[in-house]
Amino acid sequence: MNYSNLIKIAWKAIMLNKTRAMLTMLGIIIGVASVIAMLAIGEGSKESIKKNISSMGANMITVRPGAGMMGGVRQGMTDMQSLKMKDYQAIKQQAVLLKDISPLVNGSGQAIAGANNWPTSIYGAATAYLDIREWGVEDGSMFTEDDINAYAKVAVIGKTVQENLFPNEKEVIGKMIRFKNIPFKVIGVLKEKGENTFGQDQDDIIIAPYTAVQKRILAQDYLQSIVASAISEDQAGAAVVEVTSILEKSHQLREDQDNDFNVSSQQELIKTFSATSEMLTVLLVAIAGISLIVGGIGIMNIMYVSVKERTREIGLRMAIGAKGKHILLQFLIESILISLTGGVLGVVFGLSITFVIAQIAGWPVSITINSIVISFVVCTVTGVFFGWYPARKAAQSDPITALRYE
Fold it and tell me: Which of 92, 106, 107 is nearest to 61 (CA)?
């Protein structure tokens, strides 16, 4: 059995009906292009999520007041004041898997500098906060432990705050701003970070000593959260368990009580968002895959037409010695060639669409070899699956009847 001759015959049959073959391939082309584009967008989204969340601090662990039971009623996070300075001190002293730790309090309001004002948020934190967030100071410096102990009214500001409060001034170190009528001296300007995964402007921020914010701005003794960084990403999970254990002892919780706090790591957040993104990607690919089914049905349809048109040819081949398996392979190879050619064109089209999406829409995309390999495998399977039945019908033709066919 000469396979090269069968391929040549199949290819010649396709070339004799170029327009019909191209129209048949169209469903495959659209299906493959859609699958590649959807997978590229999905993978790009996952990588973008990981990158954005990691930019907030790859090893960051966050402790927040959680939903506990009080009087038989489950309390919301905003109704709880379960995190205290003693919790921060306990974690700081007992945790061995943490590199840095900082209490965190925050409030919103108008920041004023001269005739300019800007609605923003002020965060009270420790000096380690910038290391935890993997952030840096572009101009000036961060406040010190002495500033924290002295309740000093000093602050570092983000780029957005600088641009809106000091639009025409390049040098802002030493300038005064007021937040809720409390004056703060600007001692540093943070490096630009841009928006995070949730579309929040990370540069629209004022950071001051947590002691000053607690006492002078918020007048509270509890913490909104505690942030820390694990010694490594691999240790983040173990660090979460360690912090949870320390806080359970600090809060003297019984085994039958729910924790009145929540401890989470960035890795958990990445997994959650990645799982959501992956589920959406699968859904989009499944929808795009419908085009492949439609394309496969088109191949089956055109192969039926081809078998009918070439009935006399089939009879003649059988009359001169061709066996049923030769006829089967001839039409099966023709079906596979149509499908694979459509697959190649679909890959080119899909890569082009992905490039256009990245350039014009600005969406994050990531093309993987797996998506191209999967597309070719699907094309081959489609060609075999939808071409088998028409090819089998051709192979079962009676040569005498076929020769008499008009």
Answer: 92
Which H helix or E strand runs over 290? helix 266-309
Alpha helices of 139-224 — where are they, by DSSP H?
145-149, 159-165, 210-212
349 phi, psi to nearest 5 deg: -65, -40
What pLDDT is stored for residue 68 in this prediction?
45
Query: Computed from CA positions of residues 32, 34, 39, 41, in that sequence, does the dihedral angle turn out positive or negative?
Result: positive
Closest listed residue to residue 176, CA positions, set 111, 98, 220, 239: 111
* Nearest-angstrom CA–CA distance, 331 and 6: 9
Tokens of 74: 């489950």
> CB-based contacts of 379: which residues, under 8 Å, 6+ apart?
28, 32, 292, 339, 340, 342, 343, 346
Listed by start position, the domains of the chain span: 3-52+272-404, 83-259
| Sign (positive or negative) of CA dihedral 387, 389, 392, 398 | negative
What is the model's pLDDT at position 404? 58
What is the distance between the alpha carbons of residues 124 and 171, in angstroms, rounded to a whole number? 24
Instruction: Read off the pLDDT of each residue in 370-386 and give the average, rounded to a whole number.
Output: 79
